[in-house]
Amino acid sequence: MQLLDGKYVSNKLKQEIAAEAAELAMQLGRKPHLVAILVGHDGGSETYVASKMKNCEAVGFRSTLIRFENTVTETELLHQIEKLNLDREVDGLIVQLPLPKHIDPEKVTEAIDYRKDVDGFHPINLGRMQRNLPCFIPATPYGITLMLKEYGIETAGKHCVVVGRSQIVGLPMSILMARNTQPGNCTVTLCHSKTENIAKYTQKADILIVAIGKKNFITADMVKDGAVVVDVGMNRETSTETKSGFKLYGDVDFEPVAPKSSWITPVPGGVGLMTIVGLLKNTLAAARKEVYV
Ligand code: NAP
Predict the structure, then answer these.
(1) Is residue 292 part of a domain?
(2) Section 68-97 average pLDDT
(3) What is the pLDDT of the chain when averaged over all its residues?
(4) At 203, which CATH number?
(5) Which ligand 1 atom minimizes the distance to the CA of 275?
(6) Are residues 36 and 108 in the same domain?
(7) Which residues contact 237 (CB under 8 A, 6 or more apart)?
(8) Structure pTM?
């Protein structure tokens, strides 16, 4: 078993991004700029946004966090997005999900200018991704492909099973692995909560990517010997063992699954760190007008 080490790969790629950002800042006369909007005070969201902002600063980007209380109206939020869409000094714009129930996340996602949509959730970006056209790829699936590439994992001709079909992780991941690209060219099976006998599929996976949000769901008997296992799950539980008061668990039961796999991501220290890299690379591309002019 070998580790798909998110810490190592993300540090390496962040150094490259920092060098490219410095060069771009000289050309533009300003730093690449990411704006994040955070509504409310959800503990997980606070942590993820803080980490995104910190990582932006670490690679020499400018980052701005705009906060709203849970009581913000949909109209107010859409108005703020429109202002940022028009702001020429803003390259990337993200709205941290989930949003309060009275705000329609689809409306918000579609309100963001697709040329600034560095989360890659806008239907134009998702459609272009499916067609293998230049676009912003959703940060988590993007980060996973960067990691597979970095470790030279052969994907062509392999059977990839993706568990979970969310719009931000599982579904785009399945498309990327099926596309005629490297990584890609897999035969893909996409499983979800209505799939009967999931183990029947996961046991046949050469590459198993799990994004469901259920602690230790994938057990050793569900994994083929020698499989590449990518665990997207981030299940936060309160803990007295850690300084933060929380402990993260993946969707894969790491201890028993690791010895069966050829490669595996740890949680933490795997996909989460690569998601940040995906976001940073998209933001850099947006500032460079590399995807859209
Ligand atoms: P989500 O929107 O809640 O979607 C979960 C998906 O899993 C759905 O497609 C659901 O099926 C499926 N599912 C749920 N229970 C299942 C079961 N028992 N068997 C099979 N499929 C099941 O979740 P998400 O946003 O994709 O996130 C998934 C996990 O990844 C969470 O732990 C989240 O925190 C984590 N995450 C991590 C990162 C990172 O950077 N590491 C980024 C994003 C998310 P249906 O469609 O049928 O309901």
Answers:
(1) no
(2) 98
(3) 97
(4) 3.40.50.720
(5) 40
(6) yes
(7) 215, 246, 247, 249
(8) 0.97
Active site residue 119: yes
Answer yes or no: 215 catalytic: no
Do 259 and 216 sit in the same domain of this protein? yes
Ligand 1 atom showing the smallest separation from residue 271 Cα: 41
pLDDT tens-digit profile of 159-180?
999 999 999 999 999 999 999 9
Give the residue numbers spanning the domain of 255: 139-273
Pocket of ligand 1, beta carbon within 6 A: 140, 163-166, 168-170, 191-195, 198, 211-214, 232-235, 271-272, 275
Q: How far is the centre of ligand 1, averaged over its atoms, from the C-alpha of 169 (Å)? A: 8
- Residue 60 Cα to ligand 1 midpoint, Å, equals 32
Strands 246-249 and 235-238: antiparallel
Confidence label for 59 from pLDDT (cuts 50, 70 and 90)? very high
Residues 6+ apart with CB under 8 A from 3: 263, 264, 265, 266
Instruction: For residue 272, give the nearest of 241, 250, 246, 247 by alpha carbon.
Output: 250
Cα 125 to averaged position of ligand 1 atoms, centre (Å):
21
